[in-house]
Structures are given as C-alpha cells and as structure tokens.
Automatic annotation (TrEMBL):
Organism: Papilio xuthus
Record lineage: Eukaryota, Metazoa, Ecdysozoa, Arthropoda, Hexapoda
EC number: 1.2.4.4
Class in the EC hierarchy, top level: oxidoreductase
Cofactor: thiamine diphosphate
The reaction(s) this protein catalyses: N(6)-[(R)-lipoyl]-L-lysyl-[protein] + 3-methyl-2-oxobutanoate + H(+) = N(6)-[(R)-S(8)-2-methylpropanoyldihydrolipoyl]-L-lysyl-[protein] + CO2
Matching InterPro entries: Alpha-ketoacid_DH_E1_comp (IPR050771), DH_E1 (IPR001017), THDP-binding (IPR029061)
PANTHER family, A to Z: 2-OXOISOVALERATE DEHYDROGENASE SUBUNIT ALPHA, MITOCHONDRIAL
Protein name: 2-oxoisovalerate dehydrogenase subunit alpha
Length: 419
C-alpha cells in the first residue's frame, strides 16, 4: 500500500518492487512477492493515511493551489445553509424537550461534511443518508417547512407520519428515505450504483453517508466488497465523528480508522478534515470524477460530534464538558468558513446578525404552521404497501372502522384528516 501526502487517493499497488528472493506469486487469489522470513503485519506496520485539508484551524488557506474555485454566491449559500441548519437544530431540539415532537438529532460539528459534499455533487446524483446529513437536504433546496412537517408527522409529511422524526426523503430531490437500522443503506446504495452503471451513457453517481459506528456492521463490509468488485459509480462517505452513540472510536476498531479498509477492498480512498468545508468539497468533487468513471471511492471525513447523539442521549455520562468545548471552539466548521468568507470580503457582522434572525424566524414560522396542520388519516397506516390491498388488511380496516365508530369519544379524531 502506498501512502502519499497531499491530495491523492490511496489504492493498492501491484507490489512490483524487488524482493529478497526475487519473483512474484501467480496464485489466483493474490499477486504478491515472495519472502523468506516470517513477518506478521499489524495496525502499526503502515504509516497512518494522512488527512487532507485546505484550511488551517483559523480558516486560513494553507496552499493557494488547493483552494477550490467556488463563486461568491455559492460560498454564501453554503454558509447560509450552515446557519439555517444550526437554528433548526437549536429550535427543534428544544421543541422535543417541550414534548412537541417525539425525537430529534442535531448536526453540530459536522456541518462542513454536509455542505462541502452536497456542493460538489450534481443534483441528479442519488443520496443515501444515515440520519445526520440534513444539511445535504437544505443544499438541495428542500424547504425548512418540508423538514419540520416531517418531524411533526402531519398531513403534509411525505411519509404520512409513519416514520420517526429526522427520517427525511425526497424522490424529487434524489434523496432516498432514511431508515433507522444502521448500515442497511450501504448495500442498497451499492445496488443502486450498479443499476446506474448498467444504464447507457450514465453520468450520475451515488453517495452513501454512514458513521464510523455503522462501519462495524456486516452490511458495510459487504457493501465495500460489492462496490469494488462490481466497479460501481459510488462514493462511500464515512463521517467519523468519534462516537457511536456512547462508544468512542478507540473502542470500535484497532486499525487506522475506516479509511484503511478501503485499499484492502480495492477502493480508491482518501481521508479528509471534515471540519474543513473546502477540503470536503475538493475531495468529493474529485471522488465524483472517479465514481462516474466506475471507480468506487471511500472517503473518511474526520470530525467531532459536538451535540448529544440524539434527544435520547446524555453525552455528559461518557465524555467531559471540556472535551466538547475544545472541539466546538477550536475546530468549528461554521467558524472556519465564516473567517474564510470575511477574509474575502464576502461576509461581516451585520450579515451574520441578519442571517441568524432570518433563519430562526423561518424555523419558528414553520413550526407554528406544522402544529396547526391535521395529522394524516388513520387509514394511511394500512395503505401504500400493496397496490391491491389483500383481504387480511381489508378485514383489519373494517374492524378499525367499527371500533372507532363505537368508541369515537375515546379518540381525538378531530386532529386527523377525515377524508
């Protein structure tokens, strides 16, 4: 395995270098040199895969040659969506604490991964998300109202109230609906990529987001192998934020993170600073070029989950406040991009104040509107599975109708659509 610093993808070499006794094996399972001494390899046998970045911790460009060519309007849009995401997280998290929605997950610390990757993709590229990528949806122009309606599960929720909050999806925007079980989206995404490959003149790719915890699931390994052996047009985007709920990454794996698995499976691989929006943009843009040429890519974006795992979690039980504050202060992707924009003269304190106010107001309005909307008709829970409803479900539907007619005073039917 060759590991080179700078903006390069790691891949398997053919090991053509000279060996002590000369010659390379011709086994069908591996082309490797012969040696005449026993040597076991472990996680310390190779240098760690380097982390690519464009900006330093203070939002300054390290090497001008690596600065991506993103126009002013696009940069400002990326940053505005970051602010919108932060305000949405703040208000909807509080909404759950007030009992207005049942569940929520924040995205603090990972905004750079969302926005940098989304900006580098084509709107036609297919997205398989896990559950902490809502910034990708904002970048694709899904409105705050649509997202809030989903969290409230009202009649304008595309999922008709059947999903947990934050399980978004949009066929119109090429975003496959999120599901809770970890890593199930990985082999599905590879299958979708293989289907794209088989289409004539394909110019689309699939991007699949997952966390380093999900990478421990068997589905992840199967997906890596299928992606490589079938030469699928896919970007496998790992968000390594340091924690799988309460399990730190130090207890999840012994090797060099998730990126080290890429070359072993035959995937083009790069590790990037996920708090550096510009670095993520460059990495994903280059990865997309490879992917649409049927060269699958694994990206490990290093970040830190600043918020709790979800509203069901209290992270103070397994990490210190000082640790959280350090990352929130020193490696904030939002702060880095703001400094970068200010340095270019694209942003200032007045624009910041106005943007925060507008973002907050849009979430509050959307939340107030969502609460006024009725819930989906109760029959929706039995529909949309079969084209023709089978007799068993028809029987259940009739039983429910009779039950509600008899005991309607015990059910808040006025809160639901009646047609």
């Amino acid at each position: 395995m060759a590991l080179r610093a700078g903006f390069t993808f790691v891949k398997l070499n053919s090991l053509r270098q000279a060996t002590r006794n000369g010659g390379t094996s011709e086994f069908p399972g591996a082309k490797a040199p012969y040696v005449n001494e026993i040597k076991f390899l472990n996680e310390n046998s190779y240098d760690p895969i380097p982390i690519y970045r464009v900006m330093d911790s203070n939002g300054r460009i390290i090497d001008n040659r690596e600065e991506p060519n993103i126009d002013k309007e696009s940069l400002i849009n990326i940053y505005r969506n970051m602010i919108q995401l932060n305000q949405m997280d703040k208000i909807l998290y509080e909404s759950q604490r007030q009992g207005r929605i049942s569940f929520y997950m924040t995205n603090y610390g990972e905004e750079g991964i969302h926005m940098g990757s989304a900006a580098a993709l084509s709107p036609r590229d297919l997205v398989f998300a896990q559950y902490r990528e809502v910034g990708v949806l904002l970048h694709r122009a899904i409105t705050v109202s649509e997202l809030v309606n989903q969290c409230y599960g009202n009649c304008e929720d595309p999922g008709k109230g059947r999903q947990m909050p934050v399980h978004y999806g949009s066929k119109q925007h090429n975003i496959v609906t999120i599901s809770s079980p970890l890593a199930t989206q990985l082999p599905q995404a590879v299958g979708a990529a293989y289907a794209l490959k088989r289409m004539p003149n394909n110019d689309r790719c699939v991007i699949c987001y997952f966390g380093e915890g999900a990478a421990s699931e068997g589905d992840a390994h199967a997906a890596f192998n299928f992606a490589a052996t079938l030469d699928c047009p896919i970007i496998l985007m790992c968000r390594n934020n340091g924690y799988a709920i309460s399990t730190p990454s130090s207890e999840q794996y012994r090797g060099d993170g998730i990126a080290a698995r890429g070359p072993a499976f035959g995937l083009h691989t790069i590790r990037v600073d996920g708090t550096d929006t510009l670095a993520v943009y460059r990495a994903v843009a280059s990865a997309r070029d490879l992917a649409i040429s049927n060269k699958p890519v694994l990206i490990e974006a290093m970040s830190y989950r600043v918020g709790h795992h979800s509203t069901s979690d209290d992270s103070s039980a397994y990490r210190s406040v000082e640790e959280i504050q350090k990352w929130a202060k020193d490696e904030s992707p939002v702060q880095k991009l703001r400094i970068y924009l200010e340095g270019k003269g694209y942003w200032d304190a007045e624009a910041e104040t106005q943007c925060v106010k507008e973002a907050r107001d849009s979430v509050v309005r959307a939340m107030q509107d969502a609460e006024k909307k009725k819930l989906p008709h109760w029959k929706e829970m039995l529909e949309d599975v079969y084209y023709d409803m089978p007799p068993k479900l028809q029987k259940q539907m009739k039983q429910m109708e009779k039950h509600l007619e008899k005991y309607q005073e015990h059910y808040p039917l006025n809160k639901y659509l009646n047609e």
